[in-house]
Design brief:
Belongs to the acetate uptake transporter (AceTr) (TC 2.A.96) family. This is GPR1/FUN34/YaaH family protein. InterPro entries: Gpr1/Fun34/SatP-like (IPR000791), SatP (IPR047623). Its main location: membrane. It comes from Fusobacterium mortiferum ATCC 9817. It is a single chain. It contains seven helices and two strands. A two-stranded antiparallel sheet has the order 1-2. The chain is mainly alpha-helical. Helix 1 packs antiparallel against helix 2 (about 45-65).
């Protein structure tokens, strides 16, 4: 006699959690850039747990949705924050004085240039998600421009301030995006508008790649 076990798993949209992680880490990091918080010692925990692990969790859940955009965005920035946290720890001497003495801060500049390239094509993709995400990605572009130029010592005061302002605005917009995803899902209606896709590159009514999705049901059968 055979027995069928039917397990139904619902995978929720991870956008609210991922944007919360981005909001917290950029909020704390911007305070450091403005000089309100001195040093990066107490930025590191938020970089690891909110910037990195939370966005990685969002990435892994977006994989289950088959969402290439969300997976790449959350995953890419999760590993950025892992890298930044380790870079800061090297500079603080956590891994020994030899590594600290050999650390060249200009290496960060090339990382920021690489992530600027990454963010530019993600910005193009965000055009067909929603306007909130589009604004966030445009602000991240300016953040990496400011970070890259300031790391190479180019107009340091102005580019450092550009990075600080951009990062603060990213935090505020990410808080809004997280709140909209939570409240819209909770209330079952558009409580806070995210803004429709621009629809420039394709029909936004078809095969939409928004991070704002309904839960996915995964059905597993054991016979």
């Amino acid at each position: 006699m055979s027995q069928n076990n039917h397990v139904k798993i619902e995978v929720a949209d991870p956008s609210a959690l991922g944007l919360l992680g981005l909001a917290i880490v950029t909020f704390v990091a911007s305070a450091n850039k403005f000089g309100i918080v001195s040093g990066v010692s107490l930025v590191i925990p938020w970089a690891i747990f909110l910037g990195a692990f939370v966005q990685l969790i969002a990435c892994l859940n977006d994989i289950k949705h088959g969402n290439v955009f969300g997976t790449t965005a959350f995953g890419g920035y999760a590993f950025f924050w892992f890298g930044m946290a380790m870079g800061w720890m090297i500079q603080l001497g956590v891994f020994g004085e030899t590594m600290k003495a050999a650390a060249d801060p200009k290496a960060f500049g090339f990382v920021f240039l690489g992530y600027l390239i990454f963010t530019l094509y993600m910005t193009i993709g965000s055009i067909e998600t929603n306007k909130t995400l589009l604004i966030i990605f445009i602000l991240i572009d300016f953040l990496f421009i400011g970070l890259a130029l300031s790391s190479f010592g180019i107009a340091y005061h102005y580019t450092h301030m550009l990075a600080a302002i951009s990062e603060l605005l990213i935090a505020l917009m990410s808080f809004y995006g997280s709140a909209a995803n939570v409240l819209n899902k909770t209330f079952g209606r558009e409580f806070l508008p995210l803004g429709k896709p621009l629809g420039i590159f394709r029909n936004s009514e078809r095969n939409n790649i928004q991070l704002d999705k309904s839960p996915i049901s995964v059905e597993i059968f054991n016979k």
